[in-house]
Amino acid sequence: QEYLVESGGGGGQPGGALKLACAASGFTFSNSDVSWYRQAPGRERVLVASIDSTGGQTDYADPVKGRFAISRDNDKNMAYLQMNSLRPEDTAVYFCNAVLFLDLGTHGERHDYWGRGTQVNVSV
Question: How many angstroms separate the first and last alpha carbons of the chain?
Fold first, then answer.
């Protein structure tokens, strides 16, 4: 089962904008913290932006601060990454991640969900 499915990737020009979407299903999305990661060719996957379950708190990696915005719509089980002022170094595969913590009384469980990623290419 695919719990997270990303969309919205593609080609963008420097200075342009793209909006990625992440559709969730099969778990209680509204209780999860969501993050976007990216992985450039030959590099490790790195955290880009995070948002808590209520959408009240967001965090960004320094390279994207002021340019990217993460958001979510718990009614639609969707998360988004608005990418503005694109740069060639934003080229990467972007992955959606959701982390759900379950309180089972005697212990807690962490569940990590990942999408397959969507390619973003920024070039002239």
Answer: 37
Q: 67, 84 in Cβ contact below 8 A?
A: yes
Q: List, for residues 30-55, the tens digit of each pLDDT value.
A: 999 999 999 999 999 999 999 999 99
The string of DSSP letters for 27-91 reads S-GGGSEEEEEEE-TTS--EEEEEE-TTS--EEE-GGGTTTEEEEEETTTTEEEEEE-S--GGG-
Q: What is the pLDDT of residue 39?
A: 98
8 A C-beta contact, residue 33 and residue 12: no
106 phi and psi angles, rounded to 5 deg: -80, -20
Burial bucket for residue 114 (CB in 10 Å: 0-12, 13-18, 19+) = middle
Q: Measured between alpha carbons, how far is 79 from 124 in angstroms, rounded to an integer? A: 28
Closest to 24 in 3D by CA, of 16, 32, 13, 15: 32
Residue whose structure tokens are 């695919």: 2
Average predicted confidence (pLDDT) for the chain: 96
